[in-house]
Specification:
Chain A is built from 5 helices and no strands. Chain A has 106 residues and is mainly alpha-helical. Helices cover 80% and strands 2% of the residues of chain B. Classes of the chains: A mainly alpha (106), B mainly alpha (234). Chains A and B meet through helix 3 and helix 5 of A and helix 2, helix 3 and helix 6 of B.
Chain lengths: 106, 234
């Protein structure tokens, strides 16, 4: 069993550890590519504002509305839940206080 | 009861001021987001999700951080007020986590064409939510005894470890999640910075308010549990 586990571990290392030549090739490719940034990477690093009427034709308004609706729904839902919890706790406190007074008076 | 009433009266003015300030700030923030900040060139109007998504993540850090701190203090001092801090922080942090994971995919659909991807930041954020969901599930099972409270406290401290992983995951593991705000400056125009900055402050105020409210409720619940215990043993 131990030798099987050891063999599996060695096989996994052989599969996932890069060879020295492969490492050197990856480094060379990375340094060659570092100057050229693809559009996705460029988009991930900056936001540029648009001037003019183009904004009106760009889709995504529904996504934005849904996102903001979710935010407000979650916030108000939580506030409502807390209010219910507060009321329950206040009622319970009143009831327990009355019971303690009553049992203390007996 | 008298002590409880006096405590509430003492802090209600500060709470009210914070509430009014936060509401006013939200109004200004919404105006800045939709009127002042321009529409982004490539993403369009969907980019404005960013102004709530990012501050929600930051508020999530506040909630989970407060929960971990309260849990740590509870494990050290065994004082139930710190346990209440842990519960309040976890709930509020989880609320903002829900906001993050609901608004993020809506943005991602526009930006990447997919609702979800196993990007490092998204994955570690999901993990944080699962840890604190486990915390809340444990605490919601009836009256939590000492063992449940301590176990949950341990979970919250464990969840704290995930927070820096979320924050640094993009740089460390080269994810596709945007990093428009970095230590070297940002990729935002000045009006966008204003909108984001105001949103950060508004969400900070909101997180503090919600934690405060939830803490107050939790302390009242602990008092009812204490009274119930006294009644049973009379």
């Amino acid at each position: 069993m131990r030798s099987l586990i050891l063999a599996t571990a060695i096989a996994m290392m052989a599969l996932f550890l890069p060879r020295p030549n492969a490492l050197a090739q990856e480094e060379a490719a990375a340094s060659a590519d570092s100057g050229a940034e693809d559009p996705a990477e460029e988009r991930a690093a900056q936001f540029v504002g648009v001037k003019g009427a183009d904004a009106e034709r760009i889709p995504g308004g529904i996504l934005m509305l849904v996102a903001y609706a979710i935010v407000w729904l979650l916030l108000f839902g939580y506030l409502f839940r807390m209010r219910m919890l507060q009321r329950q706790t206040a009622d319970e406190l009143r009831r327990l206080g009355a019971e303690i007074k009553a049992s203390g008076g007996e | 009861m008298k002590t409880l009433g006096a405590r509430k009266a003492g802090s209600s003015t500060v709470w009210a001021l914070l509430l009014i300030g936060t509401l006013a700030l939200f109004g200004v923030t919404l105006y800045t987001i939709f009127v002042v900040a321009p529409v982004e060139q490539q993403m369009g109007i969907a980019q404005k999700i960013f102004y709530f998504h990012v501050p929600s993540a930051y508020a999530m850090y506040i909630g989970f951080g407060v929960s971990a701190l309260g849990s740590l203090m509870y494990l050290i001092k065994r004082d139930t007020k710190w346990d209440a801090v842990g519960v309040a922080g976890a709930e509020v942090g989880f609320l903002f986590w829900l906001i993050v994971v609901c608004t993020g995919p809506l943005w991602a659909r526009k930006a990447w064409g997919v609702w979800w991807t196993w990007d490092p930041r998204l994955t570690t954020t999901l993990l944080a939510g699962m840890i604190f969901a486990a915390y809340l599930a444990l605490r919601s099972m009836g009256e939590a005894g000492e063992v449940e409270k301590r176990f949950a406290a341990g979970l919250a401290i464990f969840g704290l470890i995930d927070l820096p992983l979320i924050h640094y995951s993009v740089q460390r593991w080269r994810g596709v999640h945007p990093t428009v705000i970095t230590g070297k400056g940002g990729g935002l125009e000045s009006e966008m910075y204003w909108a984001l900055g105001l949103s950060f402050v508004a969400f900070t105020g909101l997180a503090i308010l919600l934690i405060w409210m939830r803490l107050s409720v939790e302390r009242d619940r602990e008092q009812t549990a204490q009274l119930r215990f006294e009644l049973m043993h009379q």
